[in-house]
Amino acid sequence: MIPLPAELSAIKDALNLTDTDFTHFHAQEHKYLNELKQTPAKDHLSIHYIGVLDELTECQ
After folding, report:
1. Closest C-alpha to 52, from 44, 15, 34
2. How many domains are there within the chain?
3. What is the phi/psi pair of residue 38, to 5°?
4. Which of 20, 33, 45, 60 has the fewest CB atoms within 10 Å, counting from its CB?
């Protein structure tokens, strides 16, 4: 089994990556996962729209 640092060096060389790239990848992944915690704005608008339609129906 190849030690992890050796594997990492091989991957970095093969893909022409630097340590900075890995830091950037981590930041992107963190941002993406945090955004998954929030309901998309489109969903909020859809829910509000349905609520308004329900209120309109009740008023008629």
Report:
1. 44
2. 1
3. -105, 140
4. 60
- The answer to pTM > 0.70 is no
Domain with 12 in it: 4-59
52 touches 58 (CB < 8 A): no
Tokens of 44: 């909020």
pLDDT digits (tens, 9 = 90+) for 19-58: 999 999 999 999 999 988 888 888 889 999 999 999 999 9
What pLDDT does 39 receive? 82
Contact 12, 18 (CB under 8 A): yes
d(CA 20, CA 24): 6
Structure-token pair, residue 39: 């309901």
Cα 51 to Cα 10: distance, rounded to the nearest angstrom:
56
